[in-house]
Write a structure and sequence with these properties.
Layout (H helix, E strand, L loop, with lengths): L5 H9 L3 H7 L4 H8 L1 H14 L3 E7 L2 E6 L2 E7 L11 E6 L2 E7 L2 E6 L4 E4 L14 E11 L4 E10 L13 E7 L4 E4 L5 H10 L10 E3 L2 E6 L10 E6 L4 E5 L9 E7 L2 E7 L5 E7 L8 E8 L10 E6 L5 E6 L3 E6 L5 E3 L10 E6 L10 H36 L1
Antiparallel strand pairs: 1-2, 1-24, 2-3, 4-5, 5-6, 6-7, 8-9, 9-10, 10-11, 12-13, 13-14, 14-15, 16-17, 17-18, 18-19, 20-21, 21-22, 22-23
Helix pairs in contact: 1-3
């Protein structure tokens, strides 16, 4: 490769998956410097997002984490990560090739399955008043703040009281945000009243356990109506730039329907299930935070191969944009043909058991050199060792110099 111009190598590398680029780092020092540079990491991610190449499906089972190449469903890889313990590691968010991992509200990490690099978040206590009951309900969110070019994790925790399965109103809660750029947490002080309702009424109702949905620099949670308590749906948004909450407007006609939230083609979308659970209408907000831009995209009839149609979520369009990949009941992936209105199961090798799925792009985010904090610690350690060695050399040289003078 020594005779190939670097701009051509760069163009070739931009088209390769991250797993291949990790191996290419050993080709030469210029290749190593290129792949590890922040400019190349950003360009590679942008190229992947624009082209739609190297898209993977991340499968999550009770004790299973696997990646599947969307263009080659027989190419399945088990994912091992350093946070994994004997218990169940929770996967709570997905963004630009990264996933959020949690063993507890204080044991969190951001992990890149393509490069196997992990950034452990500094342990942050849950600061509840003395005498309050044990923490119970936790909401997470992982997103990219494009304004500040920063990855952030949102953690919302409320105490619980009474019986283990009892929702209790009025118990304390806190919201903290982690910044990857600063490698630190901060507490969110300004909170709208609807967030308290999010804990009180809705924690156990959604399939996703309340993971934030990322779109247009904000994380979103839907608070579905609850007959007898709350008569209308509400969407909460958290702006990753300002670290503030707000309510997002949507069509009033959907306020009393069975509603869930997702993202399709980069746009926020709503899934409206009719009361007989015989079909799901998918709505999309084409211009963010503009209520008039909501429109119904398509209707998905209940597939004949599905006994119940409790939950449906669109994941992405096919490259020809004539089909949409759907996740149904957190257990099955199906291609929905927009013209014929028919569904076809996406079969994945050696994955017959129940699993939920998320889309994952191949990226170099977090780099290839490991946890940035650990990298910094190694640099500081090497600097200290180099300083000590230099001091020893200076002492030796001084000793030799004095000894030589004495001889003379």
């Amino acid at each position: 490769m020594a005779n190939i111009p670097m701009d051509i190598i760069t163009d070739i590398f931009l088209r390769l998956p991250a797993t291949t680029l990790v191996r290419c780092r050993v080709l030469s020092k210029p290749c190593l410097s290129l792949i590890d540079s922040q400019d190349f990491i950003s360009s590679h991610l942008n190229h992947t997002l624009r082209s739609g190449d190297h898209i993977m499906i991340l499968l999550r089972g009770p004790r299973l984490l696997r990646t599947v190449d969307l263009d080659a469903p027989n190419k399945v890889s088990d994912v091992e990560h350093p946070l994994k313990t004997g218990g169940l590691t929770e996967v709570f968010g997905f963004c630009n090739g990264l996933i959020g991992l949690s063993n507890s509200p204080t044991d969190l990490a951001v992990f890149n399955p393509s490069t196997r690099q992990i950034h452990r978040l500094p342990a942050e206590p849950v600061d509840f008043p003395d005498g309050s009951t044990t923490r119970g309900y936790v909401f997470y969110g992982l997103g990219y703040d494009s304004v500040n070019e920063d990855y952030k994790v949102v953690r919302m925790v409320q105490c619980k009281g009474g019986k283990a399965d009892e929702l209790v109103f009025g118990f304390p809660y806190e919201i903290k945000v982690f910044s990857l750029k600063k490698n630190s947490w901060k507490r969110v002080q300004k909170v709208i009243p609807a967030v308290q309702l999010l804990f009180y009424f809705y924690y156990h109702l959604l399939y996703r356990r309340g993971y934030g949905v990322l779109a247009s620099n904000s994380l979103h949670w839907v608070m579905p109506r609850r007959p007898g308590l709350i008569s209308f749906n509400t969407i909460i948004r958290f702006d990753l730039d300002s670290d503030e909450f707000a309510i997002l407007d949507f069509p009033e006609s959907l306020a009393h329907e069975n509603l869930d939230i997702g993202v399709l083609d980069g746009c926020l979308c709503l899934m409206c299930n009719n009361h007989e659970f015989s079909y799901v209408d998918v709505w999309v907000m084409k211009e963010y935070n503009v209520e008039e831009s909501w429109s119904k995209l398509f209707r998905v009839p209940k597939p004949k191969s599905v006994e119940s149609f409790d939950f449906m979520r669109p994941l992405l369009y096919s490259k020809e944009r004539d089909k949409v990949l759907l996740e149904i009941n957190n257990a099955k992936l199906m291609w929905f043909d927009l013209a014929s209105k028919r569904c076809r199961t996406l079969r994945i090798k050696d994955c017959d058991s129940l699993y939920s799925a998320e889309l994952l792009v191949s990226s170099l985010v977090l780099g290839c050199k490991g946890d940035p904090v650990e990298v910094m610690r190694r640099k500081e350690r090497r600097a200290r060792e180099d300083k000590i060695m230099q001091e020893e050399r200076n002492k030796r040289d001084d000793f030799l110099s004095k000894g030589f003078k004495l001889v003379l």
